Amino acid sequence: MFKRYSIVLLLFVIISCKSKEEKTFFDFDNVEYYSLNKSKEEEISRNSNIGVRDSIFESVFYKDYPDTLNSSVFLKMVNSDGFSRFELSEKDVEYLRNDVFIEKISLKMFELNKACAPEYRDILVFKKNSKISGIAKICLWCGHFYFISSKKNIQTEEFGTEKDYEALKKIFNTYKKK
Description:
Helix content: 40-55%
Oligomer: single chain
Structural class: alpha+beta
Number of helices: 7
Largest sheet: 5 strands, antiparallel
Number of strands: 5
Strand content: 15-25%
């Protein structure tokens, strides 16, 4: 009797487990990191004080935008003078794939949530075979994020643990110092 239940339980576990690839938020082999330049951030602040608005830039900086992976307006904006572009090393790409941008179980619900509005200074563009497969906009200050992925039905609710943000901050700072 015990043996029969053990076999059924084992089969259930095997069937319900997802492969590592199924658990990743993005399908990628390359990652580009875009960091908002300090001068652009100061310009935003000055313009805001005098009422000058740039709706396209505001969409990139403040909103859950773009709606599609290949938005030419978004790509043109992040490739402008306002952002610095870095290509992540193979080591960092592997770390993001295996430890950060994956479905996981966490105790995030017990962490304190910050209540500020997001300011997306850090953007990751994920590519597979040189084609964009995902975009992650991250606000390290308040813990907000916006993901758009070519993968369907990804579960991102548990993303954003303190460990995730510390890892991202460390990676981002490495490239900003270059």
